[in-house]
Amino acid sequence: MLDGLKGEDSIAELCRREGIAQSLYYSWSKEFLEAGKKRLAGDTARAASTSEVKDLRREAQELKEVVAEQTLELRLLKKSMLGDGGDQE
């Protein structure tokens, strides 16, 4: 990647020497330059790892379950306070 940016050899020669397709080189080059632009712009956020994503999904599910339980408890409490069991909100 860096050798290609230096411009000492042609991209075709560099790819032949390294045994990669030119399309792969250009794909890597684009990713490299985009990451550099983001970093220079102050965007230091990184992609979450698979384990982080799994943990966050589990936590989100647990929070949804807590909200559902509390919503049910609140509805039951409202019904008991109304005394007639009607659903008057």
TrEMBL record:
- The species is Roseovarius aestuarii
Q: Which Pfam families match?
A: HTH_Tnp_1 (PF01527)
Recite the lineage of the species.
Bacteria, Pseudomonadati, Pseudomonadota, Alphaproteobacteria, Rhodobacterales
Q: Which domain of life is it from?
A: Bacteria
Q: What stretch or stretches form a coiled coil here?
A: 46-80
Q: Does the keyword Repeat apply?
A: no
Protein name in the entry = Transposase
Per UniProt, which keywords does this protein have? Coiled coil
An annotated GO BP: DNA transposition
A GO molecular function assigned to this protein is: sequence-specific DNA binding
